[in-house]
Every structure is written in structure tokens, then in C-alpha cells.
Specification:
- The chain has one domain: Response regulator (Rossmann fold, 3-Layer(aba) Sandwich), CATH 3.40.50.
- It has a 4-stranded parallel sheet.
- The two termini are 29 Å apart.
- It has 168 residues and is α/β, with parallel strands linked by helices.
- The chain has 5 helices and 4 strands, in the order E-H-E-H-E-H-E-H-H.
């Protein structure tokens, strides 16, 4: 199948899978025009980890569905029965530096670092604004990914294409 008929599976990774990776999953699924199917996971989500409520609120205010979003371990995507990933993108520096599982199919990888909008102190409005700014920065890069021509999404060049977008 070509990338025109079969969506590329993209996994966004972060440490806890509560903020940045959740934002990226929801955003790519909203803008991908069926070219991509996004997922997210964390290298070490806490027990009973849930998506950050401010992140969910910012997504909803942007008109992006939050249905089905939940925190999970990256182990859920390392098994033989998991969806096969075409591209794995770390969105936090901690996850980028960790030893990742061996991913079935040897997908392309890239690192797109974003500051953690859930860190730091401040008013709820300031924290919400940090999430909104992170969502906006991700949207710009994910729109570029979504608009890449089919030849840039072929397995042989996907890693290079995704890594170049880190400069965008």
C-alpha cells in the first residue's frame, strides 16, 4: 500500500504521557486528513496517570476532540500485537535520552523538543497560556508534516524528513 491509501502511524513519546505527547496525538489526528494515525505514550507514566486537565481544556477550546485520550506506557506499542509504527517522535528531552524499546518494523525516529507546559508555578491563566503556546508550536510543525509530499513520507526518507522539521 502507498502512503496515499494507508495512513502512517506516528507515536509521540514523552516521560509521563500527560501533556506534550497527548497534545501532539490529538492535534495530528485532527489535522492529518487521514494521512496519519497518531498515538502517544510515556516512558514512565505514574500509577493512575491521567492527561493534564489544562491540556485537555486547551484542546477542547481549540475545537480538537479529546475523546479516547489517556496516559499509557510505551510498552503498549512494543509488542507484536501493537500497531506497527512508521514514525516515532519524542517531544520531551527526557524521553529522547532514554533507552527505548526495540520497535517492531524499525520505524523512523525524530526528536522535536518542547518545554513542558505543566512545569513551573503561576496562575491557572498563565499555565493555560503555556499549554496554548505549546499547542500552537506543535500545530505549526505538524501542519508541515501533514503537507509533505508522498515521496517525503516513504520509509527510506521519512526519518530525514521528520528530523528536518525540528528546524522549522
Amino acid at each position: 500500500m502507498t502512503t496515499e491509501t494507508k495512513p502512517l502511524n506516528v507515536l509521540f513519546l514523552c516521560t509521563h504521557n500527560s501533556a506534550r505527547s497527548i497534545l501532539a496525538e490529538a492535534l495530528l489526528n485532527a489535522i492529518s486528513r487521514d494521512r496519519f494515525k497518531a498515538y502517544s505514550a510515556g516512558s514512565s507514566p505514574r500509577d493512575n496517570q491521567q492527561p493534564n486537565p489544562l491540556g485537555l481544556q486547551v484542546l477542547q477550546k481549540a475545537g480538537i476532540s479529546t475523546e479516547g485520550l489517556h496516559s499509557k506506557s510505551w510498552d503498549a506499542f512494543a509488542g507484536a500485537d501493537a500497531p506497527r509504527m512508521d514514525l516515532i517522535i519524542t517531544v520531551c528531552d527526557n524521553a529522547a535520552g532514554e533507552v527505548c524499546p526495540i520497535w517492531p518494523g524499525h520505524p523512523a525516529t525524530a526528536h522535536w523538543g518542547y518545554a513542558d507546559p505543566s512545569e513551573g508555578s503561576g496562575t491557572d491563566a498563565e499555565k493555560s497560556e503555556a499549554f496554548r503556546q505549546t499547542l500552537h508550536a506543535m500545530k505549526r510543525r505538524l501542519e508541515l508534516l501533514s503537507s509533505l509530499p508522498a515521496e517525503k513520507l516513504e520509509q527510506a526518507v521519512l526519518q530525514s524528513s521528520a528530523r528536518q522539521l525540528n528546524q522549522a
